[in-house]
TrEMBL record:
It comes from Rhododendron griersonianum. This is Peptidase A1 domain-containing protein. Keywords: Aspartyl protease, Cell membrane, Glycoprotein, Hydrolase, Lipoprotein, Membrane, Protease, Signal. GO terms for biological process: proteolysis. It is a lipid-anchor.
């Protein structure tokens, strides 16, 4: 038995005509020596996890929270670096890059701001983490090597989002993301990932949404699910559960179940997103066949539709509503809103369901949003009319963007190996653990789920 970097192994390796990468055989006791051993151990351990179909989640737990004051998005607590620092990040299936505020030139103010039961916002400092290192311009994850910054060879990034004038820019770094397995042992895992050191934020990132970072979950190789898969930690799939009480779960490596409904992704080689096709829609008693392509995006607050789909949805809904429609209100982004009496029967609100390509059925449990005013309740069809949809700075042929209110009540599986979207009805508490019990206590409310998530005017 010989050590992998011993002289006998080195001579055998050379005799076979093979050489260690870059022709370098690390000197015993050197930094490179131990770094290579640690990397090898991570890969081997990762492969064992992947082969056992193990799933992992964040070290702070798999719970997610919908925070109405921060754009109605779902957030999770992640821990980065050594020593670990916590960040409250928005979960976004519509983009790829994970970034946090870092070495800020222009970031959201953290002075005196507290969210999610007193959570304090953080700013990442690469110099304070012993495991942090910059990503070089020749790294395969560096998308813009020709724009490298001076003599430091730091890879820059810049991402623009759907919201008007909303963007993030900075440099790429690598550090430890703290995870844990979701088996009974709950073993802690340190996965080295590449993410954005967000030095400059603009638009809604400065106040309304994701002030402490955005966790991109897209299809690109730089997304965290892709990195975890490529390093052998998990299979290339993950799930998100959206509970009707505003809490949920996220799990990396989850491939769903045999009972789930499924539909294939429509992949654009130039810009891959979780794009699916809706073949049939039912609103109340009205049924129509159509060919509607849509993006499943957890990082957008409401569902966007272009005509003629928007007009058909809204007019079919309106024709079956018994309550009085309200006049337009410039403070409300929705066009079809109605008075709601305290003793209103919500079962009379028209139901909405979709049939996906392949025949899978998706019932929409939360098609309306309830808005509280000082004197009354209003409910609105939670669709926004859009002239065109712009996805991460690119014009797209998408006709719709289906977001959290369409995913509520389901465990949604984004399977990047089979290239399918899966979903199964779930209350997100099917398997109880301390994380979700704690989440439930933090988010308890006596209001209906729609009211708890609603706008207050």
């Amino acid at each position: 038995m010989h050590h992998r970097f011993s002289e006998p192994v080195k001579k055998w390796w050379e005799a076979t005509g093979n050489y260690f990468p870059a022709g370098i055989w690390p000197e015993k006791g050197s930094i490179e020596y131990y770094a290579q051993l640690a990397h090898h151990d991570r890969i081997r351990r990762g492969r064992r996890m992947s082969e056992s179909d193990s799933s992992v989640t964040f070290s702070e737990g798999n719970s997610t929270f919908r925070i109405s004051s921060l754009g109605f998005l779902h957030y999770a607590t992640v821990t980065l670096g050594t020593p670990g620092m916590k960040f409250l990040v928005a979960l976004d299936t519509g983009s790829d890059l994970f970034w946090v505020p870092c070495d800020c030139s222009k970031c959201a103010s953290i002075e005196g701001k507290h969210y999610s039961s007193g959570f304090e916002l953080s700013v990442y400092n690469p110099k304070e983490s012993s495991t942090s290192k910059n990503v070089s311009c020749n790294n395969s994850l560096c998308a813009h090597p020709t724009r490298c910054l001076g003599t430091f060879n730091h890879c820059p990034y810049m991402v623009s989002y759907v919201s008007s004038e909303t963007s993030t820019s900075g440099i790429l770094v690598e550090d430890v993301l703290h995870l844990k397995t979701e088996d009974r042992d709950q073993e802690f895992v340190e996965a080295y990932i590449t993410f954005g050191c967000g030095q400059i934020q603009t638009g809604s990132f400065l106040d309304v949404a994701a002030p402490n970072g955005l966790f991109g979950l897209g299809l690109d190789k730089i997304s965290v699910p892709s990195i975890l898969s490529s390093e052998g930690y998990t299979s290339d799939s993950f799930s998100m559960c959206f509970g009707q009480d505003g809490t949920g779960r996220i799990s990396f490596g989850d491939k769903g179940s045999a009972e789930q409904e499924e539909t294939p992704f429509n992949l654009d080689p130039l810009h891959q997103t979780y794009n699916i096709t809706v073949s049939q829609v039912r609103v109340g008693t009205t049924l129509v066949d159509l060919d509607l392509t849509a993006l499943f995006d957890s990082g957008t607050s409401f569902t966007y539709l272009v005509d003629p789909a928007y007009s058909w949805f809204s007019e079919s809904f309106h024709s079956q509503v018994k309550d009085r429609r309200r006049p337009p209100d410039p403070r409300i982004p929705f066009e079809y809103c109605y008075d709601m009496t305290p003793d209103a029967n919500t079962s009379l609100i028209p139901t909405v369901s979709l049939t996906m390509k392949g025949g899978g059925q998706l019932a929409i449990y939360d098609p309306v949003i309830v808005i509280s005013t000082q004197h009354e309740l209003i409910y609105c069809l939670a669709f926004v009319k859009s002239a065109e949809l712009n996805i991460i700075g690119r014009k797209s042929s998408l006709q719709a963007m289906l977001v959290e209110n369409f995913m509520t009540g389901y465990r949604v599986v984004f399977d990047k190996e089979k290239l399918i979207l899966g979903w199964k009805k779930s209350n997100c508490y099917d398997v109880e653990d301390t994380d979700t019990i704690l989440a439930r206590s933090h988010n308890s409310t006596t209001a209906t789920p729609a009211v708890a998530a609603g706008l207050v005017l």
